[in-house]
User: Which sequence fits this backbone?
């Protein structure tokens, strides 16, 4: 067994490779378990299509609530799939391996969060114009809806990750995940939905985008650190 | 049986050094005042009855569990300062072995390796083959038996450059051949200058320098 017994530390290149390998691994797992891939998007479609049945098929009524409905459904779809983020890894011990990697945990957690967004967030963004059409959202608001979701859904994944990381070690989590994650996510929901309704009334929306962008920047830089710390506590 | 040949004058040979470890769980003291030094070229077996704190001790030593008092040094430096160096020279396999059931052995190993340093696919295949998993490289791990899953996890030892192996009950699900094989891997590693800390109830039959630490007898003496 001629192998070098190294004690070297990780370099930038190996951190990048570990980041890519983790991202790829989570995507492969999702593609192999079709449920992971289909559940969030099916949930999103079903919830949104129930609203016209529940409220009224009247275009005027629907267009008033359409932005909120799409945004709330996107938030719920993201939360529904959050559990996949660390649960299986916790149970099979992969999470311990992740924590014991010499690579910075920030990047590994970020890779897992990006994978979660690609699986649960991006399809929602892509399908949102179709559902907006179904809910009679005025066409001038389409781009705003897509853009706010594009900026907002990654925040939902990043903040949601903190909640899952904190609760992954608990036997029965029930509503506690929602209690932790919802207060963090509601600002995004409020700003995102408000931006779309403001566009419908011809109001300027620059400030909403600035706020959403600021939240995304905050989430990208801080949330993976919080998730990493929470994971260390959960595995302890 | 081997006598303890450890030479304290060999300077840097001490890899991991824990002193005055104290750990309490559910208001029960698992161990207190525990000293343990692991040097390059030796295997340390942690013994003890169920619930005596073997797994907890291993998790403390590898840095997963931080609910303890006492000092742990890696090559003479504090573990918390040397964390990155320590993690890149240590490999831990717990009783949750870290093998994803949906992925194949090849995909599992590729990811495990990439967390340290990515390696060539040929080496992954060779490592799996050496642990008797030839032709199982691309079968999802959920279709493998418990022993085979354990072997997938143990293949990580062959592709890792780590010099310290921390293994929690690595023999549990292995068959007779698997046990022999692992014992020879352990001997090879230790004789090549590596170090191993493991827990097992199995009577070890290794051809390298080894000693045992019995948590039960420590508690009885206290």
Assistant:
């Amino acid at each position: 067994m001629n192998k070098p017994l190294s004690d070297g530390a990780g370099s930038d290149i190996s951190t990048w490779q570990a980041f890519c390998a983790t991202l790829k691994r989570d995507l492969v797992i999702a593609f192999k378990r079709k449920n992971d891939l289909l559940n969030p998007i099916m949930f999103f479609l079903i919830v949104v299509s129930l609203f016209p049945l529940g409220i009224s098929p009247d275009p005027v009524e629907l267009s008033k609530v359409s932005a909120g409905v799409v945004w709330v459904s996107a938030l719920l779809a993201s939360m529904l799939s959050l559990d996949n983020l660390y649960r299986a890894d916790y149970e099979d011990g992969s999470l311990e391996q992740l924590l014991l990697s010499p690579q910075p945990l920030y990047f590994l957690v970020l890779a897992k969060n990006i994978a979660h967004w690609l699986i649960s967030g991006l399809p929602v963004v892509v399908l949102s114009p179709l559902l907006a059409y179904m809910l009679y959202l005025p066409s001038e608001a389409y781009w705003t809806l897509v853009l706010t979701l594009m900026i907002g859904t990654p925040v939902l994944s990043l903040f949601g990750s903190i909640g899952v990381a904190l609760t992954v070690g608990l036997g029965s989590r029930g509503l506690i995940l929602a209690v932790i994650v919802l207060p963090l996510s509601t600002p995004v929901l409020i700003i995102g939905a408000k931006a779309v309704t403001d566009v419908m009334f011809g109001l300027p929306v620059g400030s909403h985008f600035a706020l959403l962008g600021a939240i995304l920047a905050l989430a990208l830089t801080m949330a993976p650190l919080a998730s990493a710390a929470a994971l260390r506590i959960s595995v302890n | 049986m081997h006598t303890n040949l450890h030479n304290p004058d060999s300077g840097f040979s001490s890899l991991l050094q824990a002193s005055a470890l104290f750990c309490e769980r559910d208001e029960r003291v698992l161990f207190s005042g525990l000293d343990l030094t692991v040097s390059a070229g030796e295997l340390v077996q942690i013994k003890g009855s169920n619930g005596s704190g073997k797994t907890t001790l291993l998790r403390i030593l590898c840095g997963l569990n931080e609910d303890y008092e006492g000092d742990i040094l890696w090559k003479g430096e504090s573990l918390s300062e040397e964390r990155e160096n320590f993690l890149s020279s240590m490999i831990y396999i717990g009783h949750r072995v870290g093998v994803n059931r949906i992925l194949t052995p090849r995909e599992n190993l590729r990811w495990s390796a990439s967390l340290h340093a990515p390696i060539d696919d040929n080496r992954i295949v060779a490592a799996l083959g050496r642990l008797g998993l030839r032709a199982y490289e691309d079968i999802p791990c959920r279709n493998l038996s418990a022993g085979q899953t354990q072997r997938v996890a143990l293949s990580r030892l062959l592709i890792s450059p780590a010099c310290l192996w921390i293994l929690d009950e690595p023999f549990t699900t292995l068959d007779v051949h698997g046990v022999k094989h692992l014992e020879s891997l352990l001997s090879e590693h230790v004789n090549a200058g590596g170090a191993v800390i493991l827990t097992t109830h199995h009577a070890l039959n290794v051809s390298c320098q080894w000693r045992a630490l019995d948590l039960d007898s420590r508690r009885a003496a206290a």
Observations:
- The mean pLDDT of chain A is 90.
- The longest helix of chain A spans residues 105-134.
- Chain A has one domain: 14-235.
